[in-house]
């Protein structure tokens, strides 16, 4: 009886946790060498026309406050350590979204002398959004897919 | 005065309906000239490979199985594509195009980004060849 | 029974759980109003609750080079100070749970403790951003504290009392807003400075200094600071409504007056862009002079009329 009670408690706690995480993903944006196309589209996503605050997304300044790291651009040699450090500064649990073709695969910059590659070579990525740049709706689509995958877990 | 103008704007927007598009719940059609995922019609393709040559990001690869029988497979990596439509411009036989409704491409893994276009049996051959390399390659 | 009453007062009503829920609700109303002013839909109704619950479930990083006792203790001190003020103000139209002559000054200083612990938390961490944020928080505290206090003491002088309940009952028959408009405006704007709302959010300007004093806080500490801010907002609104807007006699009075004040706050938030820190200080110097001028007018001209 006592065991089952604790189990139900644990299940309730887990469901509350999932609810809180899927309803309040605070984001931080990191540009690891992008051409600024994707950055502009991310800003367009935050404007009143698309209004990500409907899903509880707020753009935070500090990685300590954020849950979702939105990465744009291929990883350059210069920004590799910074990207790693930004990721490590975020408290668990944390998620990474790669926005744009370059962040997903390296894109046109793959093979350049100063480019390491895509985001996945440096930090683990949870959702990919291809596009050059992706539309604001496509970015929302990616965020929603990430949140749905959290709900299923 | 500028301050007064802003005040009027604020008061008006208090009683206005929000401009926000409720995107994932209500979807609007994308504009016709949007460049989304690449489309390929293998019937007209002659295998000239101009699309392959001019792609700035190596996103497409035209794999020839049998040039005389016109068996070609187009491997398309939408994660690498920059959606510049250079291949569409180059294709003289109009077998390449950019769809305007396939733009919700986000995924949780990178596997679904690589797509093979072509006739079904050709695609099957190519996928098998990639799965078991150097088994059925023609001797040269 | 003698012990049960204070415990209920501290844990559930008016301080404790009740004021936390009201604070989160007012936070949502504030965000929703700002969203409406910007022509967007804004957050859903449970958004502040989801934020706080999520922050409690997150890992708390205690960075190197900080005093862990202060790092953990200062948010709790801030929340405790904010919750204590709720005991003295007339929440939901009821009289304050406790009152004694001079509790207005105690409430104002307890509200300053929230800001002080925020600044101390910023200067405790090794990050340079939180250090700059702490400096700015303190600078802003010193600049708005004097005019805010002077503006709140105006009604006290008129009511011949330092006790919030007495001023509240006095204000029920006299609309002090009509006789001291300058004091009302400065008290309202002073509350915005206290809460670090947009025109005065230089201490946590995220485009310049990441997140100000709270840069290194994550998880539980951040959640508790947010709760303290929410409680501070409700208490400040109640105080201004009680002192200036004709007092608070019943729940309808309370909600109507504080929500109208909140509408003004949200409008001012979306109307102005962020002031630089020296602009803030300059603004508050004029504000203090204006309140003093109002005092002189009150004392010299209107002693008979105003009282």
Q: How does this structure look, described?
A:
The complex is a heterotrimer of chains A (153), B (140) and C (307). With 153 residues, chain A is α/β, with parallel strands linked by helices. Chain A has one domain: Rossmann fold, CATH 3.40.50. Chain A contains five helices and six strands. In chain A, the strands form two sheets. In chain A, strands 1-2-4-6 form a four-stranded parallel β-sheet, with helices on both faces. In chain A, helix 1 runs antiparallel to helix 5 (136-152) and helix 2 (37-46) packs across helix 5. Chain B is α+β, with helices and mostly antiparallel strands. In chain B, 25% of the residues lie in helices and 18% in strands. The mean pLDDT of chain B is 79. Chain C has one domain (4-306). Classes of the chains: A alpha/beta (153), B alpha+beta (140), C mainly alpha (307). The A-B interface holds A 48-51, 54, 101, 104-108, 110, 120, 126-132, 134-135, 137-138, 140-142, 144-146, 149 and B 18-24, 30, 34, 56-58, 77-84, 103-110, 113.
From the N-terminal CA to the C-terminal CA of chain B, the straight-line distance is 82 Å
| CATH class wording of chain A | Alpha Beta
Strand content of chain B: 15-25%
**Spatial sequence of strands, sheet with the most strands of chain B:** 2-3-5
Task: Give the C-level CATH assignment of the domain at 33-124 in chain B.
Answer: Alpha Beta
Q: Count of helical segments of chain B?
A: 4
**Physical arrangement of strands within the biggest beta sheet of chain A:** 1-2-4-6
Question: In which range does the helix fraction of chain A lie?
Answer: 40-55%
Oligomer status:
heterotrimer
Strand-residue proportion of chain A: 15-25%
Largest sheet of chain B: 3 strands, antiparallel
Number of helices of chain A: 5
Distance between the termini of chain A: 27 Å
3D shape of chain B: elongated
Helix content of chain B: 25-40%
Count of discrete domains of chain A? 1
Largest sheet of chain A: 4 strands, parallel
Shape call of chain A: globular
């Amino acid at each position: 009886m006592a065991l089952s009670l604790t189990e139900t408690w644990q299940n309730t706690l887990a469901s509350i946790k999932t609810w809180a995480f899927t309803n309040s993903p605070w984001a931080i944006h990191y540009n690891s060498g992008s051409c600024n196309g994707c950055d502009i589209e991310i800003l367009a996503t935050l404007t009143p026309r698309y209004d990500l605050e409907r899903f509880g997304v707020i753009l935070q300044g500090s990685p300590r406050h954020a849950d979702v790291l939105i990465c744009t651009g291929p990883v350059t040699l210069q920004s590799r350590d910074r990207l790693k450090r930004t990721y490590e500064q975020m408290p668990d649990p944390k998620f990474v979204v790669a926005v744009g073709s370059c962040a997903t695969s390296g894109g046109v910059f793959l093979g350049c002398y100063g480019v390491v590659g895509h985001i996945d070579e440096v930090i683990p990525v949870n959702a990919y959004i291809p596009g050059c740049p992706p539309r604001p709706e496509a970015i929302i689509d990616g965020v929603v897919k990430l949140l749905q995958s959290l709900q299923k877990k | 005065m500028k301050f007064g103008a802003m005040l009027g704007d604020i008061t008006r927007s208090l009683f206005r309906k929000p401009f926000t598009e409720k995107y994932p719940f209500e979807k609007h059609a994308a504009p016709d000239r949007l460049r989304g995922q690449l489309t390929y019609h293998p019937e007209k393709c002659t295998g000239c490979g101009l699309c392959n040559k001019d792609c700035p990001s190596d996103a497409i690869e035209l794999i020839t199985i049998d040039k005389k029988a016109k068996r070609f497979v187009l491997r398309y990596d939408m994660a690498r594509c920059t959606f510049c439509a250079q291949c569409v411009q180059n294709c003289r036989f109009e077998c390449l195009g950019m769809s305007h409704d396939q733009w919700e491409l986000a995924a949780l893994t990178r596997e679904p980004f690589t797509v093979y276009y072509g006739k079904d049996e050709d695609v099957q051959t190519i996928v098998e060849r990639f799965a078991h390399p150097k088994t059925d390659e023609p001797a040269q | 029974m003698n012990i049960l009453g204070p415990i209920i007062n501290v844990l559930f009503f008016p301080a404790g759980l009740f004021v936390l829920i009201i604070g989160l609700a007012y936070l949502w109303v504030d965000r929703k109003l700002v969203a409406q002013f910007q022509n967007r839909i804004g957050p859903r109704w449970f958004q502040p609750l989801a934020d706080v619950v999520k922050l409690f479930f997150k890992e708390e990083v205690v960075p190197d080079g900080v005093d862990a006792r202060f790092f953990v203790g200062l948010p709790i001190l801030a929340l405790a100070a904010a919750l204590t003020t709720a005991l003295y103000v007339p929440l939901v139209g009821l009289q304050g749970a406790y009152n004694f002559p001079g509790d207005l000054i105690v409430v104002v200083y307890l509200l300053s403790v929230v800001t002080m612990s925020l600044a101390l938390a910023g200067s405790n961490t090794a990050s340079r951003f939180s250090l700059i944020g702490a400096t700015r928080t303190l600078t802003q505290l010193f600049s708005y504290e004097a005019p805010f206090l002077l503006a709140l003491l105006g009604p006290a002088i008129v009511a011949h009392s330092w006790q919030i309940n007495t001023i509240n009952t006095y204000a029920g028959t006299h609309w002090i807003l009509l006789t001291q408009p300058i004091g009302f405006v400065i008290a309202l704007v002073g509350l915005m400075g206290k809460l670090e709302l947009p025109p005065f959010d230089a201490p946590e300007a995220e485009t310049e200094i990441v997140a100000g004093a709270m840069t290194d806080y994550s998880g539980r500490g951040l959640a508790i600071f947010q709760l303290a801010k929410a409680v501070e907002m409700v208490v400040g609104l109640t105080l201004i409504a009680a002192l200036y807007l004709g007092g608070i006699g019943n729940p309808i009075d309370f909600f109507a007056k504080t929500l109208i004040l909140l509408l003004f706050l949200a409008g001012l938030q979306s109307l102005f862009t962020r002031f630089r820190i020296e602009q803030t200080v300059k603004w508050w110097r004029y504000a203090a002079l204006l309140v003093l001028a109002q005092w002189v007018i009150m004392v010299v001209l209107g002693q008979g009329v105003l009282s």
